[in-house]
Amino acid sequence: MAKETNQSNPVTRGIIIAVASVLIGTGLYLCLRDAAAPIRKVSVSGECLSTVAKDTTAVTLRFRAVNKNAAESNRLARAAYDALVAKIKNISDDTMKLNTTGFNSSEKREWSESDKKYVSIGIETSIDLDVSSKNRATIETILGVAGDSKNTEIQGLRMFAAPETLKSALEDCIKTAAENARDKAAALAAAGGSRVGKMLTAQFYRTTEDNNVRPVMMRAAMYEDAVAAKALAAPELFSSDSDISVTVNAEFEIR
Fold this sequence. Notes:
By secondary structure, the chain is α+β, with helices and mostly antiparallel strands. The chain has helices spanning 10-36, 70-89, 136-147, 163-191, 226-233; strands at residues 41-52, 56-67, 97-112, 117-133, 152-160, 196-209, 218-219, 242-254.
């Protein structure tokens, strides 16, 4: 009886090997072709122009005193500081923040026409205090109180959008600018009979214009008439919104 074998027919085996080689070669060719083909892309810029309301008002107060005696100079400046801080703390406002930003004590010299040189007039002590609030009326009140205080200067006033407010508005504007960029890319792709694909790269630039209010510095101690000083230091405050401009430069795939 003849013995059976499991050996395949040589012809069949050759056909299988040939077909496998063709399939492998074709797949390899397609992979290499796709890898070598350059990605078609389009570069565009998207824009967003928006505004955000200024929700915070702040003022810097400087308490300054000059005296021949350093200890007395320090005492006078500190007395003015403590007196006004006590009045400010009596204002009911949960959003108000106080921040002492500077303390300096040094010799003050002025030009003497008679001596034709700078001469010492004493020790000058200054303390700076920043006060901010989301309630504009609070700052108006503080301006009035500061204008009626001795050895006190109103150094500056500014209105701005709080960081958390600006962050939210900026993120919304970036999204709008990115959508504007994609719309432009889609229009360009459609004009060439193609369609826009995924975003490949993107970067954004932004500018913010606060239009801050910065009045002329007023030194309350210059005015002997406390009523006049208070009237000058307590105006009604107005301010426009902050302008936000965002540009997104992006590259999109074209299919």
